[in-house]
Amino acid sequence: MKPLNPVVAEVTDRIRERSAATRADYLRRMDAASGHEPGRAKLSCANWAHAFAGQTIADKLTMMGGKAPNLGVVTAYNDMLSAHQPFERFPEVIRKAAREMGATAQVAGGTPAMCDGVTQGRPGMELSLFSRDVIAMSTGVALTHDAFDAALMLGVCDKIVPGLFMGALAFGHLPVVFAPAGPMPSGIPNAEKARVRAEYAQGKVDRQTLLESEIGSYHSPGTCTFYGTANSNQMMMETAGLHMPSTAFVHPETGLRDALTAAAAKQAILLAQEGRGRMADVIDERTIVNMIVALLATGGSTNHAIHLVAMARAAGVLIDWTDMDRLSSVTPLLARVYPNGSADVNAFQAAGGVAFVIRELAENGHMHADVTTIMGDGVQAYFKEPTLQDGELVWIDGVRESLDLDILRPASDPFQPDGGLRLLQGDLGRAVIKVSAVKPEHRIIEAPAAVFESQEAALQAFKDGELDRDVVVVLRFQGPRANGMPELHSLSPALSVLQDKGFKVAFVTDGRMSGASGKTPAAIHVSPEALAGGPLAHVRDGDVIRLDAVAGTLSTVDAGDLLIRPAAERSPDHALGSAWGYGRELFGAFRQSVSTAEEGASVCFAAPTHAPQRHDVPPDPNLVDRAVDA
């Protein structure tokens, strides 16, 4: 293997130094939670009897023995998400595998799992990002029974895997394995789907034609086949060493998928039996850097510019967008998968898949090869691929050369020498842009702003022909504090149409874009957000904005000091609409306490209530009196 790239080493060292206190505190808590006895040794007889009262007689006898590991399963099953529908039958596969190991397995709890494909452009999308932290909390609720010796996470899609990851890290004293369900078979070509969407946006085809096209794309159990957030999740879990090798992109309804699910359960139990493979030891600064690098090398979802910050923070590791940008400068782009190309994840897997990517990155010094994984020390196990031979699961060496250079390339001959995400900064704040899907001729845009506060208003302007010009569409008051930071993918077809007409078009927002977006240059996650006093609140229609993805800048041209201007305020309708209806009223506390986008847009890491009291502020005598009375 080649030596580690000096920039990767430099960024890792900087993260390690920055995270020294938080990482030490995290490991201290995990060490305190670790025990040398099975989980039920901590429970009284009554506690333990409650834990297995509903089990089979055979499992009860095993659990009464007091020595066999008990595997806790946290599942995000529902049958509205095609990617999660296969999880309905996974628990029985897992229980059977556990019994073969002389152990037991229980579904410890479930988490919510909403579908961004269903809620795009709808009020429910304003709960999407917040659902990640709810999933983390519900994972904590499931595992807090303290009756488990290892855990198995069942999840695939957008916020679900980050939430499971964050929640599981709170129990990082246990071995934790992630088991996905795999992608659906390929449907209609992605280029055809995009064409029909663009024609519908222009009124050239009717809703029935659009529906038939969408059904042709999303048509069976399994993950959607474009390389959005869900499939980026799977790439990262594999890179993190939390999957069985090359598990991500095996179809759900196959014997190989069932064998991999059983193997995941057995590996978690084996780690528990041998007292190794704690999640706290698998996930460290090096692992987080590897996850970022894999995301950049494959042109992964922009959502992870937010999720990865929160996921790392759950392990006591502090990262920011500067770290990602610095790593992107030296990470080669190895994959072209829709929306960064025409191929889907099934074609990516056939060309060499995850095993090829990890081997190329590790052997060429782009990632840390000396990490701990659920398979042991080092990443070499992840160079392999699973297959069934005479009904038995075995791993064989993955391909050393790409089988399709239009989809997957070696580090020596990448699609481009740097990664798929970049940092933009200037007088409009800090933002990220996904450049891997943006053609070079569209990476520098300078045009007058058209400012909106809702997707609906922007789309209406498009339909009315008001945007048929060179334009930077600015959509503000879409940050986490304003309305939960929804994805704004409903604008993608309209922006694409304007670009295809030959106009210079860009998009600037403090909201998010879907992991499926990318053709039009978009400065997203602008931080600080408009509602928190960010510069976007001071932008006016007609201000000339320059988005330069080459230089990494996002700024106004000749607008002077923006902050001298009065800040725009949300309209009452927008403010009220972002707070009530469709469950949004339940998340008021989240909007009040959520961190910034660059801090992970999370409510899970607020200052502890036992923070030291300030002695320069006199106590409130009324509070003291009430405390005495109590």
Strand content: 5-15%
The radius of gyration computed from the alpha-carbon positions, rounded to a whole number of angstroms, is: 25 Å
Task: Bin the helical content.
Answer: 25-40%
Overall, the morphology is globular
Mean pLDDT: 91
Low-confidence stretches: 608-630
What is the strand tally? 16
Strand order of the largest sheet: 9-10-14-13-12-11-15-16
Distance between the termini: 66 Å
The number of helical segments is 24
Instruction: Report the major sheet.
Output: 8 strands, mixed
Question: Which class best fits the helix and strand makeup?
Answer: alpha/beta
Descriptive labels:
630 residues; alpha/beta; 37% helix; globular; disordered C terminus
Detailed description of the structure:
By secondary structure, the protein is an alpha/beta fold. The protein is built from 24 helices and 16 strands. It has helices spanning 6-18, 20-33, 45-52, 57-64, 90-100, 116-119, 128-143, 160-169, 190-201, 207-217, 229-239, 255-274, 279-282, 285-297, 304-314, 321-328, 345-351, 353-363, 455-463, 480-483, 492-500, 572-577, 588-593, 621-629, and strands at 70-75, 104-110, 150-154, 176-179, 372-373, 376-377, 384-389, 392-397, 421-426, 429-434, 444-452, 471-475, 505-509, 522-527, 544-548, 553-556. The strands form four sheets. The protein has an eight-stranded mixed sheet. The protein has a four-stranded parallel sheet with strand order 2-1-3-4, sandwiched between helices. Strands 5-6 form a two-stranded antiparallel ribbon. A hairpin with a 4-residue loop joins strand 15 and strand 16. The chain is globular and about 75 Å long.
